[in-house]
Amino acid sequence: MPSKLYNTLTIAQLKKMFDIANIKSIGDDFYIGDLYYKEKTDLPFFNNVPTRIDGYVGLFCVSGNLTLSADLKEYHVTRNTFSVITPGNIVRMVDNAPKDGCHLIAVVMSSKYMAKLRFDMNSIFNHSISPVEYPTIQLNRMEVVLAMRYYSLMKRVIDSNRPFVSESIMALCSSLVFEVAGSWRGRQQEILKSVKDQKGRNSVIYDRFIKLVAKYHVLDRSVQFYADKLCITTKYLAKVVKGASGKTPSYWIDSYVILEAQNLLRYSRDTIKQIVYKLNFTNQSVFQKFFKAHTGMTPLEYRKK
């Protein structure tokens, strides 16, 4: 069965890690605020820790720059970049990126809150250019002005303490989602051309491979398993993956397993023996050798770090 082992960070837990002075919220299901990387933060993905968030996060870069890793793909975030993190994404800020002074505006909502907005994501996003697969875009001047107006209006509505604040924010969120969808759809040809120029026809196989790895890496770590799923030979899969990413299929499979293991070691209370079982290793010794070969530490050393 598909992998679902990653410990997720709920948006209620995420909220506690923000500077409370910077947050405007409606309960734990919706909040907005400013994030400054130069400040000390407990936000795990700001500390280069792979994190899966159980909710939707929109990040607008006001100033500075950083490198965002989403599902092992890296995206450069600069002034006026808008990024979307969706449930299931494994995200982190790459530690070698120049983040000092980076100012981000965050709009965060739970999956439950998003469901209440009553729109069909599949109908408004062309699947090939959705934020799930292409999580960052550069906003133009008009889009930046509009985004800042939404942010300012949401803060004012929350601060007003008037009746129907929750309903007003929900209406604004619905409008904002459609604006975001419009921005992504407006980049359709640009994104598709970029993908075609970079990878060509083999990008379809590569993208399907990465999705399969994200789904099944706990079940099976063999390249043959994924080649069979794609109905191609292991040799051809290796050629396609190497050509598209510069890495081997085994690299991507192992990377997902290591991220899974690191998350369980850091956030769960499972014993190492239980983690070995969850990750489908034959025994603790095999897991320890695998983990140390990729991280330079034993699982116990990583947990105590």
Number of structural domains: 2
Q: What is the mean pLDDT? A: 82
The CATH architecture term of the largest domain is Sandwich
What sequence of helices (H) and strands (E) makes up the elements? EHEEEEEEEEEHHEHHHHHHHHHH
Notes on the protein architecture:
With 305 residues, this protein is an alpha+beta fold. The chain has two domains: 179 residues, Jelly Rolls (Sandwich); 105 residues, Orthogonal Bundle (Arc Repressor Mutant, subunit A). It is built from 13 helices and eleven strands. The protein has a six-stranded antiparallel sheet with strand order 2-3-10-5-8-11. Strands 1-4-9-6-7 form a five-stranded mixed sheet. Strand 2 and strand 3 form a beta hairpin. Helix 4 runs antiparallel to helix 5 and helix 7 crosses helix 8. The radius of gyration is 20 Å and the shape is globular.
Question: What is the gist of this entry?
Answer:
This protein is α+β, with helices and mostly antiparallel strands and 305 residues long. The protein is 49% helix and 18% strand.
Core attributes:
single chain, Jelly Rolls, alpha+beta, six-stranded antiparallel beta sheet, disordered N terminus, globular, 305 residues, 11 strands, Arc Repressor Mutant, subunit A, five-stranded mixed beta sheet
List the helices and strands and how they pair.
Elements: E1 8-10, H1 11-17, E2 23-26, E3 30-36, E4 51-54, E5 56-63, E6 66-70, E7 73-77, E8 81-85, E9 90-93, E10 103-109, H2 111-116, H3 121-124, E11 136-138, H4 141-160, H5 165-186, H6 188-199, H7 203-216, H8 223-230, H9 234-245, H10 249-267, H11 272-278, H12 284-295, H13 299-304
Parallel strand pairs: 1-4
Antiparallel strand pairs: 2-3, 3-10, 4-9, 5-8, 5-10, 6-7, 6-9, 8-11
